[in-house]
Amino acid sequence: DRPLAWITLETNRATFRHELHVRYWPEGEEPALLACAHPHGAWVEWLAVQEP
How far is CA 36 from CA 5, 16, 19, 22, 28, in A? Predict the structure, then answer.
């Protein structure tokens, strides 16, 4: 089996920011926040993350 990464861009309704998350399988860990971004990609604010 090969690992799978699921990347999402969703609005955080508490902060009204669009957050880019990644979640890896098969580990099944919680999603890691990668960045905050403009909803149409005009800008991306990358955040430091630890490798899985």
Answer: 18, 10, 5, 12, 22
Please state the pTM of the whole predicted model.
0.76
Residues 11-42 have pLDDT tens digits of 999 999 999 999 988 877 789 999 999 989 89
Report the side by side order of strands in the sheet with 32-37: 4-12, 17-25, 32-37, 44-46
Confirm if 24 and 30 have CB atoms less than 8 A apart. no
- 3 state SS of 47: coil
